[in-house]
Design goal:
The protein is built from eight helices and nine strands. It folds into two domains: about 60 residues, no CATH class; about 120 residues, Rossmann fold, CATH 3.40.50. The longest helix has 24 residues. By secondary structure, it is of the alpha/beta class. Helix 2 runs parallel beside helix 3 and helix 7 crosses helix 8. Strand 4, helix 6 and strand 5 form a beta-alpha-beta unit. About 40% of the residues lie in helices and about 20% in strands. The strands form two sheets. A seven-stranded mixed beta sheet has the order 1-2-9-6-3-4-5, with helices on both faces.
Length: about 220
């Protein structure tokens, strides 16, 4: 057990050095912290003093494979917006064309307001919803009007509910519009210290093709 812990620490130190080298090359001020603890709880604890958590999507082809539950644990437990970045592709220009997946719920509203600095700076903002929203919820027109008061010129693009898989419909719209960043609320709950994401959020995280900003 001691040897395994020592080996894992060496791996962590190498990974931290790579991050430090890349950050310094980009003139970004960083510091690294290595903790011997479950990864999700380490990130959740550190997020209490952060504006944004950035996480990589687990690579299912990696050896050893990434933990598929890690992003869900952090998203639902940290209380901060989480930017998930796909393990494949070049996403350095993400944020120029942003799609907002909206359904009028509290997580959706929180995601929009967490993303406001990015929405204000974007070249294009598309707000979309899948199918009809429940009666009484703020619709796309109301969201466009609200964003306009913050200086965001958004356009509405309603999506028909052609299937029961809203996540796949949203990902299809991301591809069709050329969006390079998706903003959405994360849905789920924690029970017995085990975090569970709802169907749409789970589909998005598993199959994302662009970075996704999620709030819960």
């Amino acid at each position: 057990m001691q040897q395994m812990v020592a080996d894992q620490r060496k791996v962590a130190e190498r990974q931290a050095q790579v991050a430090l080298d890349r950050a310094r090359a980009a003139s970004v001020d960083v510091r690294s912290v290595i903790r011997q603890a479950p990864a999700a709880y380490s990130v959740i604890d550190a997020a209490a003093a952060a504006d944004l958590v950035i996480m990589g999507q687990p690579n299912p082809d990696a050896t050893p494979a990434g933990d598929p539950s890690l992003p869900a644990d952090v998203i639902l437990g940290c209380g901060r917006p989480v930017l998930c970045v796909p393990y494949a592709g070049d996403h350095r220009n993400a944020g120029r064309r942003i799609m907002v997946a909206w359904n009028g719920t509290a997580p959706s509203a929180r995601a929009v307001h967490d993303a406001l600095p990015l929405l204000v700076a974007a070249d294009q903002v598309i707000v979309t919803s899948v199918g009809d929203l429940p009666e009484g919820k703020v619709g796309l027109a109301g969201l466009v009007e609200h964003l306009g008061r913050h200086g965001v010129k958004a356009v509405a693009k309603p999506l028909p509910a052609t299937s029961s898989d809203a996540g796949s419909i949203i990902l299809g719209a991301v591809s069709d519009t050329g969006a390079d960043l998706l903003v959405m609320g994360a849905y789920g709950h924690s029970r017995m210290r085990e975090f569970v994401l709802g169907g749409t959020s789970k589909t998005i995280i598993q199959s994302m093709t662009v970075p996704v900003l999620l709030s819960h």
